[in-house]
Design a protein that fits this description.
- This protein is of the alpha/beta class.
- The chain has helices spanning 91-100, 119-129, 151-157, 178-190, 202-214, 222-226, 229-246, 258-269, 280-284, 287-293, 308-318, 353-362, 368-382, and strands spanning 2-13, 16-25, 28-39, 58-63, 68-71, 73-78, 103-108, 136-142, 161-165, 195-198, 250-252, 274-278, 323-324, 400-404, 409-410, 429-430, 433-439, 442-446, 449-450.
- The strands form three sheets. Strands 1, 2, 3, 4, 5, 14, 17, 18 and 19 form a nine-stranded mixed beta sheet that branches. An eight-stranded parallel beta sheet has the order 6-7-8-9-10-11-12-13. A two-stranded antiparallel sheet has the order 15-16.
- The chain is globular.
């Protein structure tokens, strides 16, 4: 007897779609009993094949006829705000939103209070998450101005990798100078981990910010003009050069613009281990939306003007960029009001990440197999979680997402589960809905609400 059978599912993998019964036992995928091909990654149901031999008895069954099953989405870029900023979000509300959005693993950023810059701070963050998270989680350490000697204690304490903020952002964590960053990268590389960067040139941000403020502007587009493409492009190029010199694997987070995407593509073409991540906001929104929505849409780096979104789509489709994360960055609603200079930068996104990307596939902007790669295999490989995570294969962890691609709806903030319910995607059409989320073979969400106690496990690289 197995624990669960997902019966008559259309399995979505990076290499294609196929019909199968998926069997779960002991928290892992025990068997995949195939009986039909579905095609090369489109959204259609495909023709039925011959029925397989009788299945073993199962303690529970999910009837998936007409539904698609993916390896649980991995959001490698969330800010759940604990410790220190729990009025914005916490592990209960953030992980609840993740599970309701079909995300089974999150990797949480270190710009909390205190920042995750030493083992004591990591232990404090772990205490916030353990026993409260509905999804699996990894924790980043930060490389700030502590020097390279701060790296190895965090490695030993279990961080998933490291984050460097090259530009000013929430939390005000100081950037290391280039020499200190190079030295830290060498230590990270020696430990077999990876550095991720928020790539904006801090000096350029100050210069352009002073110039735009001095002009007296307070319109919404003053924000992207104060953080222009050149600041991101330069910082991306510099981070790639430093990582190449150090021999350090690099991730460039939330790529927003064509020049930064091209820097990543060129580095990958040279054989450098550089992974580029972008986000739905940069693929689906533009500066025109910023002009319409104002401070509600303020994020760092900002959404760009015409042309950049299509360049990011092309980079994803061609492999220059590798994955999509949410940069889930919630704030209290009152912090998103008023003056463009004073409003906080960021909004909730973990719950809308997968439905938006699946909708893009249904609408023909990419394939379902692309979505499985960008939100599953790529982040799992990048952050040392493969093949247990992001993988629909026998022996992989049974972190699974069951989706209805026949859904017709819209994004509504009132239906989200973050602590503060607002979104720049309000009213946007959705052609996909997550109907169930499994974490470790147990149902974590069904019918739009979490089920059972928090079961999320702390993840460390290559465990």
């Amino acid at each position: 007897m197995v624990d669960m059978c997902l019966r008559d599912a259309t399995l979505v993998t990076p290499t294609g779609l196929r019909r199968a019964h998926l069997l779960v036992a002991g928290g892992r995928i025990a068997d995949i009993v195939e009986f039909g091909e579905v095609g090369a990654g489109g959204a259609g149901a495909g023709a039925a094949g011959a029925q397989p031999a009788p299945l073993p008895a199962a303690r529970a069954t999910i009837e998936c006829g007409g539904l698609h099953v993916l390896a649980g989405a991995i959001d490698a870029h969330v800010h759940f705000r604990e410790p220190g900023l729990s009025y914005k979000e916490d592990w209960d509300t953030g992980s609840r939103a993740a599970a309701c959005g079909g995300v089974t693993t999150v990797l949480d950023m270190p710009n909390v209070q205190p920042p995750t810059r030493d083992p004591a701070a990591l232990a404090m963050k772990l205490a916030c998450a353990r026993g409260r998270s509905f999804v699996n989680f990894g924790l980043y350490g930060v490389i700030a101005d502590d020097g390279p000697e701060a790296v190895l204690p965090l490695v030993r304490a279990g961080v998933i990798g490291f984050k460097v903020f090259l530009g000013e952002t929430v939390g005000g964590i100081p950037s290391p100078d280039d020499g200190a960053l190079l030295a830290a990268m060498r230590v990270v590389a020696g430990a077999g981990l990876r550095v991720g960067v928020h790539a904006e040139n801090n000096a350029l941000l100050r210069w352009f910010g002073d110039e735009v403020r001095a002009s007296g502007r307070r319109d919404p587009l003053a924000h992207p003009d104060a953080r222009p493409v050149i600041a991101e492009s330069e910082a991306t190029s510099r981070a790639i050069l430093l990582a190449r010199e150090a021999g350090c694997p690099l991730t460039v987070h939330h790529v927003t613009c064509a020049p930064a995407a091209e820097h990543v593509r060129a580095a990958r073409a040279r054989g450098q281990d550089v992974v580029g991540e972008t986000c739905p906001q940069y693929l689906l929104l533009s500066a025109d939306d910023m002009a319409r929505l104002g401070p509600m849409m303020k994020i760092n780096p900002p959404v760009r003007g015409p042309g950049h979104a299509e360049a990011l789509w092309e980079a994803l489709r061609a492999g220059g960029l590798s994955m999509v994360g949410s940069d889930h960055s919630p704030h209290a609603l009152e912090e998103k009001q008023g003056d463009i200079w004073q409003a906080a930068a960021g909004w909730p996104g973990v719950e809308t990440l997968l439905p938006l990307m699946l909708t893009a596939a249904v609408e023909g902007r990419c394939t379902l197999s692309d979505v499985a790669r960008w939100l599953g295999e790529a982040p799992a490989r990048t952050w040392g979680l493969w093949p247990k995570k992001g993988n629909l294969a026998v022996g992989a962890d049974a972190d699974l997402t069951v989706c209805d691609l026949g859904h017709h709806g819209v994004v509504r903030a009132e239906g989200l589960h973050s602590k503060h319910r607002f979104t720049a995607f309000e009213g946007r059409t959705l052609r996909a809905r997550v109907v169930a989320t499994l974490v470790g073979g147990e149902i974590a969400m069904r019918g739009g609400e979490v089920v059972g106690p928090p079961r999320g496990q702390w993840l460390r690289p290559s465990e």
